[in-house]
Design a protein that fits this description.
This protein is mostly helical and about 130 residues long. The chain is built from seven helices and no strands. It has helices at about 5-15, 30-35, 40-45, 50-65, 80-95, 100-110, 115-120. The model has no long low-confidence stretch (mean pLDDT about 75).
């Protein structure tokens, strides 16, 4: 393997192909918001703050959503019941403000990022020059 001179290394570092394709890891706040702000589906089920009555409601709504067939149209399930249960799940997240507390706790556990994480390393800063 041929050794490269310092000037060759410097020129390679300035070339566009030398720029790393690595991306910064996603900020903890983005991960928390994405995971805790689900509006529908299985992600909503996983993040809702369930209690006993809500579990029973979910089980009954599952029957209406999957097992019943409309005798006129032949469609299975009730969109009304499905949407109602998702609304209940969304409301349970905010019940007593505990969903927000969960978000804050998860964000705190994720750690803090230094200010440099949010700054673009390629931007030039304008500093006031002081001449004596």
């Amino acid at each position: 393997m041929a050794k490269k001179s310092p000037m060759d290394l410097l020129n390679e570092a300035d070339s566009p192909s030398a720029v790393s394709d690595k991306k910064k890891p996603e900020a903890p706040i983005s991960v928390v918001l994405r995971n805790f702000m689900s509006k529908t589906g299985e992600d909503l089920e996983l993040t809702t703050r369930m209690n006993g009555p809500a579990v029973k409601a979910a089980q009954v709504s599952f029957i209406f959503e999957t097992m019943l067939v409309d005798p006129v149209s032949g469609d299975s399930g009730s969109p009304f019941i499905h949407n109602m249960m998702e609304q209940i799940e969304r409301l349970l997240i905010s019940y007593d403000g505990l969903g927000r507390k969960d978000q804050i706790d998860a964000l705190s556990a994720g750690g803090k990022l230094p200010d440099a994480y949010y700054q673009d390393g390629n931007t030039k800063r304008n500093f006031l020059e002081v001449h004596e």
